[in-house]
Amino acid sequence: MSDRREPGADWIADVAATAAAPAGLRARVEDSRGAAVKRRRRATGAAAAVTAVLVSALAALLAGPLGTQTTVADAAVAALRAPQAPAVADPYPGATGGWRATSAGRARVDGHRAVTAGYARGRLRARYLVVSGSRLAIPDGARRLQVGNRRYVLLRRGDVNIVAWRRPGADCVVVSRDASTAGLLELAAGR
Amino acid sequence: MDEGVRRLDANRLGDHVDRLYRAAWALCGNREDAEDLVQETYARVLARPRFVRHDDDLGYLVRALRNAYVSRRRAADRRPRLVAMEAAGEPGDDRPQARPERAIEVDELFGAIAGLPDLYREALVAVDVAGLSYAEAARALRTREATITSRLHRARSRVAKILSAEGATA
Known about the structure:
The complex is a heterodimer of chains A (191) and B (170). Chain A is of the alpha+beta class. Chain A contains four helices and eight strands, in the order αααββββββββα. Residues 1-6 and 63-76 of chain A have low confidence and may be disordered. Chain B has a two-stranded antiparallel ribbon with strand order 1-2.
């Protein structure tokens, strides 16, 4: 080792660079990576399917005499298209009725902040949407339900159930193709 | 979402396995633990979507590797220590162009780095072994660039001293 250069930065980098990961480790890392990509594709596919249903459901909700609020409605639909990431924690803790948060997303569209959260209960899926500063119009044919201090609007469009309500500074909507109105009300009650 | 923040691309993570392996070896001081550490780091990172600023994938991975290393060491401190078997049959570098004398140097170098105090070792591993810039290393280790500079200087001096002493006794 007497002919070795002084171990400065270049020498350390040169020597270190000659070490390569063993083939076995590469293979294991590649397996992990491939499995993660597959997992994510499955999750993204499912989320995209749910989003497509929910976007059409919200479009149905917003169909009707919107008047000057169309822009806000469009913003809400766009917010639902925002990418969803798996939820680390429930963005709105306190879900009732056995619902658990599975995904979350947020966007700012036309100046309105929109937050979405996906929920699951067994095989049932629902999406919760909050549009800040919005006042979505209520289509004809909606039923109304008073529970405590909250007034719900109940809608059914095709096989999609929709429950909406208003809270100070925001409109809230929960929507699902497979959950009943009662199930959605249980989810809404904790929001 | 903040400007410049993007999702870590799982498809590109495999590109960094060599650098992470070197960094892990220099942290742990042996190849067996380094392999385990790299595998654990990838498993952690791939467990859920990750977000990075700019193109700092390697910096993110080095930070994850360092965190996994610290966790493992804390856990190891709480249980009986295992002594690694001598690696006889399977060399770490299975590329055909690897030179035996260089393999010895690598072993000595990483052994010397592994013996450094934590702060010096981490700076040296991030910059000289993993190949991060000073700024990237500062972000990865959550410290200032000036701190990285001074730690690197001391770390390199110590490595030189250790290797010189080994050379003199060889």
